[in-house]
Design brief:
The chain is built from seven helices and 15 strands. By secondary structure, it is an alpha+beta fold. It folds into two domains: about 140 residues, Fructose-1,6-Bisphosphatase, Chain A, domain 1 (2-Layer Sandwich); about 110 residues, D-Maltodextrin-Binding Protein, domain 2, CATH 3.40.190.80. It starts with a helix and ends with a helix. Bound molecules: D-MYO-inositol-1-phosphate and calcium ion (2 copies). The site of D-MYO-inositol-1-phosphate has 14 residues, from strand 5 and helix 3.
């Protein structure tokens, strides 16, 4: 399967999803709860439908793993991993920090990632072995080598009850060592920010494949390093992610695993 064709279809699908999101932004009439704090809106559902339709026209035999409709179709070899709206809580509060995230994986290995921030018109793409781009131009991770100069991003799981202590310990360790920590609210965009050097590292636990599949490849292709908190090479089914510029990876890993 040509990755150029995959990238082209991912781009079309992301733009369709992005247009739908922008149409609903500030005009939501339906917001429902999937959990105590986990929301789903009509925008999530409409964007996902359009993305899946677009992919289906070109690749009717591929599988889908999408946040709102789950796993369906395909023979399991080529699978599209879709977050139709990453940053739903921001979206529901009219905070313009959200994205569409689309990855394509073959035999469990992510081969392509596309992330679109439709508000800023920023498109991040990477195909395995081909580098990463922002609006068509190559990007790379930062060269920051000192913890006290590092800007980090993180996120907090919806379901915090049994992990709150660990989350707070890790946050405290990082806050005490680095220049700053931000929590923008869309994991896919946090990963793009690592990839293009706007921040030096991102960590979060309890994420899902649709939050990380595209972004992890974009960081890796931009020259960064992506693992779980223990340093194992990252796979989208892993719930914890540490994505860095590479230089700071082991120092940040130590901060996330305080003894
Ligand atoms: C969420 C966002 C958020 C992260 C959450 C994710 P959603 O995705 O990426 O930044 O902290 O853990 O679930 O629900 O907006 O698609
Ligand atoms: Ca998400
Ligand atoms: Ca989502």
């Amino acid at each position: 399967m040509s990755l150029d064709t995959i990238a082209h279809v991912a781009l079309q699908a992301a733009h369709r999803g992005g247009r739908i999101l922008c149409g609903y932004f500030g005009n939501l009439s339906r917001i429902e709860k999937k959990g105590r704090t986990d929301l789903v809106t009509e925008a999530d559902l409409a964007s996902e439908k359009a993305i899946i339709e677009t992919i289906g026209v070109h690749f009717p035999h591929h599988g889908i793993l999408a946040e709102e409709s789950g796993r369906h179709g395909g023979d399991g070899r080529g699978v599209w991993i879709i977050d139709p709206l990453d940053g739903t809580t921001n979206f529901a509060h009219n905070l313009p920090v959200f994205a569409v995230s689309i990855a394509y994986a073959e035999e469990g290995v992510v081969r392509h990632g596309t992330i679109l921030n439709p508000v800023h018109g920023e498109l991040f793409q990477a195909s395995a072995g081909c580098g990463a781009t922002r609006n068509g131009r190559p990007i790379q991770v930062s060269g920051t080598s000192r913890l006290d100069s590092a800007l980090l991003m993180t996120g907090f799981p919806y379901d915090l009850d049994d992990v709150l202590d660990g989350v707070m310990k890790r946050l405290k360790a990082c806050l005490g060592a680095v220049q700053g920590v931000r929590r923008p609210g869309a994991a896919a965009l946090d990963l793009c920010d690592v990839a293009c050097g706007r921040c030096d590292g991102f960590w979060e636990e309890r994420l899902k494949p649709w939050d990380t599949a595209a972004g992890a490849l974009i960081v890796a292709e931009a020259g960064g390093r992506v693992t779980d908190f223990g340093g194992r090479p990252f796979l989208p089914e892993m719930p914890a992610i540490l994505a860095t510029n590479g230089t700071l990876h082991s120092a940040l890993r130590d901060l996330l695993n305080p003894s």
